[in-house]
# Entry
Amino acid sequence: MYDYFVAPSDELAAATIDGGPVNSPFRTVETKSLDPVVVMGQLEELLTGRPYDEVFEDPRCGHDLAIEDDGEVLVLTVTDGLRDGLAAAGGLYEIAAAWAKIEELEGFDPVVLADVLGQLRDLAAEAVKNEERLYCWVCV
# Structure
């Protein structure tokens, strides 16, 4: 499970480790299979044109803020480039159709991905408006 959420600071985001952001005051989008490094890094490349290698080297790309249960539960940072790219995204179906072509999303329906993108876009727009950041709570 990969739950994306908005928080005002790394410290408050890390505090969601127990129970996840769904049970916190932070707005959350629940997803499956959309990891914050590989899958979302490739989405950032599609949205912004920033090469994946640069995205991967960003210090906020999947940096762990909190870890429990031998790494089975984590809170990770998400790049500001992804946040900003999502917030400005238009043409969600076209983006979803291109995104569905990456190896990690093989077999995903672009219509379903476009719906998730819409939810993530709204979340990212809220983060930009409130000068907050995006985070990902992971439970494997």
Remarks:
- The chain is about 40% helix and 20% strand.
